[in-house]
């Protein structure tokens, strides 16, 4: 599936896309530009770059169907980023710092340390993995 921006207003942007390794950089850049348009400063842009890269990479690596949805919303002083996919399996987030020679597990652990909240919710067709940046703390 090619990327399709299905909503773009002054508070929300949503894309349907196929999370494949070769397009992660493009989506990281696209998300960065979107949060700048929503008024985010450089600290938030960098966190969004990390988060979008990590969430889409997890879809590409761990979900059989790469088709997913990327949504970025600004609600008052809070920026939400969410990736919805078609897997019911929740990601595992390390409770303690993973070893630097470990194959995986660092991305979500590092993201959790940079955002005000990180979570996962089940949907009728899979799950949403999301994070939140509060303007007061990160903008």
Automatic annotation (TrEMBL):
Chain ranges of the Histidine kinase/HSP90-like ATPase domain: 18-132
Domain of life the protein comes from: Bacteria
Pfam families per UniProt: HATPase_c_2
InterPro entries: Anti-sigma-factor_SerPK, HATPase_C_sf, HATPase_dom
UniProt GO MF annotations: protein serine/threonine kinase activity
Entry keywords, A to Z: Kinase, Serine/threonine-protein kinase, Transferase
Listed name of the protein: Anti-sigma regulatory factor (Ser/Thr protein kinase)
